[in-house]
Amino acid sequence: MSAKLAEYIPIVGEGVVQELSVLGARLAGKTVVNVNSTRIGGGVAEILGRLIPLLGEVGINARWEVVEGTQDFFALTKHLHNALHGTPHTFTAEDRGVFDNTTARNLERLDLRGDIMFIHDPQPVGLIRKRAAIGGKWLWRCHIDLSAPAPGAWEFIEPMVRQYDLSVFSAPQFTRALAIPQVLISPSIDPLSDKNRELSRTEIEATLLRLGIRSDKPIVTQISRFDRLKDPLGVLEAWQLARPRVDCQLVLAGGGADDDPEGAEVLREVRDRAGNDMDVHILDLPPTSHLEINAIQSASAIVIQKSLREGFGLTVSEALWKSKPVIAGAAGGIPLQITHKYSGILTHTIEGTAFWIKQLLSEPEFARQLGRNGHNHVHANFLLTRHMRDYMLAFLLLEHPDADVIRL
Amino acid sequence: MNQTSIPASTTTASAEQAFEFCARLNLTLLTGRRARDLAEMAENLRSVPGSVIYHHTHHFLVQHQHLSPEPPNDFAYWVSNILLERRLGEELAAIDVMRFATIHDLRAALVRVIEANLERTREVRAAPLGQEFHFMRSVSFVLPTGVRAAGLRELRNALAYVSRSAISYHMFDARLRLERADNDFAAWIEGQLGEHALAEALRTIDPYTHTEEGLRRKMINLIDQRLGN
């Protein structure tokens, strides 16, 4: 159940919510058609599910369409996604055919009548080819790091991207030279969602009990898929290095091991490496475990996100929002969320991560200060209301593409 | 100094023209330009649009408002923390934005400081891969908030309530981006209410050394003194 705009007032203040209403009034009656590739699962769907009702509340007719495709299509777009991130892949004429045919079928079945087409990520990017017939302004939202794609990947989508009016990226280092304007809009967390709302002590303790985590020792946590790029083995090793000096538990919680053969393998390796240590809790959670993740993060003394590569890394914002000291790899969007030694700790090695686990557990006042600063930074920059505001500003920018100062 | 210069009084004039609070919301655009070293930084600084200079000298105030009073601008932060050129970083951080009436003048000052450094050093350090400076620009959207004040007490009460972006707009943008000589609060208090001492006190606040919440508190305190609160 998504929240009403008024419910955000105690968190962000009345002025911010009023600004959203004023912006909404400038866009009232416009139809914004969001198109992505899934209604459930993943950060994009999670954010759309919460943003669309809020946009509706301020008078924008925001709709959500989902492209459908065959297994071939989604296998291709998975390759495309990985290749845009740099994993080599050869794209054939047959791949092009699969992409174009799926796009054509979706152009027939989707209701794309509206003023602004808001197309998310590469799967639906080809819908632009009917732009002349459909009309409206077209906006492409890219959540991927496009700075170092494998050969052929960018060329696969570039002829489509260049036809858009505007593109939106999550971090400055994710972009590349484009013929169209690029807007920077960071993703966000929803402070009222089950994953981020404030939990009572009873709720937290009941959840920990259910998961078999004790509350008699400090908890060090990493929440992430069991993926090598999130380096769960490195986290385990860092914790093992730190533990002789500071008695603490380790929680590695995440999902993705069910439908991902590599994830299952990584999970097995982590379990083998941890052995029978009663202080290590390895939890393979279903994707709906929002309350569990919230409770674990809330109960933690330190949250780690030791990513080797990362998208934006919203789990960092989730932990900072709970005023937790975070130790994270300086990858992807993480440095936008953490200023080293001010609002968290950025590390580059297993040993460095171990060092900071010891330091922060031994210096709780410093750790608390990091958490406080981190919370303030998220409050100012990474909440859903800021995200909604930026999207509305981007919609308005479509009407004044060359202006520096726009009076509304 | 301000504390002794504003006489307290419970009665103040009413304005003929009410103060209309506007909010300023910025959207960040990526320009695709990057700098790897100081030479590229200087080259870009000379040619980027003014909205780029404005962005990198002002967005920190919004995004890191809790960090203030450091670091005041992105150029100084990058030079100090990525290029590890501490002296130049300090010089860039010390550029007093309040001294400049226009973005054009501020740009010239930034370029001057970097060029002087390039002349005195032979070694040009490059940023590590992935930590290049990305030039961005701000597009500002100015919108009426519907909040008005006809007198000093109303202004004080509204200041406690309006969003941070409204305070920023009237303090920062009015002066430097819109090239009005004064911040809007000082101009209105002087022009409409004839409160010279209070206007002067507000005029001499350096907003670049405060967080936005700190600014709000400072202005309310000054007005409270005048109102004898």
What does this protein structure show overall?
The complex is a heterodimer of chains A (408) and B (229). In chain A, α12 links the parallel β10 and β11. Chain A has two domains: 5-188 and 384-397, 3-Layer(aba) Sandwich (Rossmann fold), CATH 3.40.50; 201-381, Glycogen Phosphorylase B (Rossmann fold, 3-Layer(aba) Sandwich), CATH 3.40.50.2000. Chain A is of the alpha/beta class and 408 residues long. Chain A is built from 16 helices and 13 strands. Chain A is globular and about 65 Å long. In chain A, α9 (232-242) packs across α14 (350-362) and α12 (314-321) crosses α15. With 229 residues, chain B is of the alpha+beta class. Chain B folds into two domains: 26-137, no CATH class; 151-227, no CATH class. In chain B, 52% of the residues lie in helices and 18% in strands. Chain B is built from eleven helices and two strands; from the N terminus they run αβαααααβααααα. Chain B has helices spanning 2-5, 38-47, 50-63, 74-81, 86-93, 103-120, 152-159, 164-177, 184-193, 196-203, 212-227; strands at 14-35, 133-151. Chain B has a two-stranded antiparallel sheet. In chain B, α3 (50-63) packs across α6. The mean pLDDT of chain B is 86. Chain A binds chain B through residues 13-16, 18-19, 22-23, 26, 169, 172-173, 175-178, 181-185, 339, 342, 373, 376-377, 380-381, 389-390, 393-394, 396-397, 403-408, and chain B through 23, 25, 27-30, 32, 49-51, 62-67, 130, 132, 134, 136-146, 161-166, 177-178. β6 of chain A pairs antiparallel with β1 (14-35) of chain B.
Topology:
The complex is a heterodimer of chains A (408) and B (229).
Chain A: H1 9-12, H2 14-26, E1 31-36, H3 43-57, E2 61-66, H4 71-84, H5 93-109, E3 116-120, H6 131-134, E4 137-142, H7 153-161, E5 166-169, E6 182-184, H8 201-211, E7 219-223, H9 232-242, E8 249-254, H10 261-274, E9 280-284, H11 290-299, E10 302-305, H12 314-321, E11 326-329, H13 334-337, E12 345-347, H14 350-362, H15 364-381, H16 384-397, E13 405-407
Parallel strand pairs in A: 1-2, 1-3, 3-4, 4-5, 5-6, 7-8, 7-10, 8-9, 10-11, 11-12
Helix pairs in contact in A: 2-16, 4-5, 8-11, 9-14, 12-15
Chain B: H1 2-5, E1 14-35, H2 38-47, H3 50-63, H4 74-81, H5 86-93, H6 103-120, E2 133-151, H7 152-159, H8 164-177, H9 184-193, H10 196-203, H11 212-227
Antiparallel strand pairs in B: 1-2
